[in-house]
Design goal:
homodimer; 94 residues; alpha+beta; 2 strands; DNA-binding
DNA sequence: CCTTGGTATAAGGATATTCGAATATATTTT
DNA sequence: AAAATATATTCGAATATCCTTATACCAAGG
């Protein structure tokens, strides 16, 4: 199997607790940065930094709505599928 | 959705080109460290370190066969599923 | 027991991530 | 235009990751 460099970028972007929570929330519904502050224990600057990383991995994108940016997961099948697999993965045999 | 800390450990373990190649190879067939050296551009020590990380994430395990350790993916549905998703994921809309 | 082949670990320096603090930019409201 | 709101960026320090080198461990054969 050929490993694409892009895959590592995606995995690295998701391999952080805050970013994984962000995409999980965004899968439920699109959200602006301010409303994410109410859901996550992170500062505005930090959330914005994480969103920049997720955007760099082309996992999320946004639509501008006045001063707000409405973020959404731009590859929902991929991200949703990954979360499903992780949720349903049986614990490894001890 | 509740984000398990374990998920991040798994994602982090896979978010490295060498480790992703290791698990892709191990999905094909179990392999010992020496034979992985022929497949990957990495030193024995480095491969061993990566295997240690993958083992810490409970992604791989091994059976001892004399002096050799026969590594295998201990959660093939999870790892195989992740690779399938990445392979089939449509490029994000430009 | 000594050597050899297979694998793991320790130590170290280089590089990358992470997060807070401060600042910048853009948009709306007054 | 000034103030307030929403978001992004820059900088720096703490921390983590990565890889190389050297060394240790362990099992089998002689």
């Amino acid at each position: 199997m050929v490993i694409e460099k892009d895959w590592v970028v995606v995995l690295k972007a998701l391999a952080h607790p805050t970013r994984l929570r962000i995409v999980a929330e965004l899968l439920q519904s699109t959200k602006c940065v301010t409303s994410m502050q109410d859901l996550l224990p992170a500062s505005q600057a930090n959330i914005s930094q994480h969103l920049g990383i997720l955007r760099g991995a082309r996992i999320v994108d946004f639509t501008q709505d006045g001063a707000q940016r409405c973020y959404y997961v731009c590859r929902p099948e991929l991200v949703g599928g990954l979360l499903d697999l992780l949720r349903d993965a049986p614990a490894p045999p001890a």
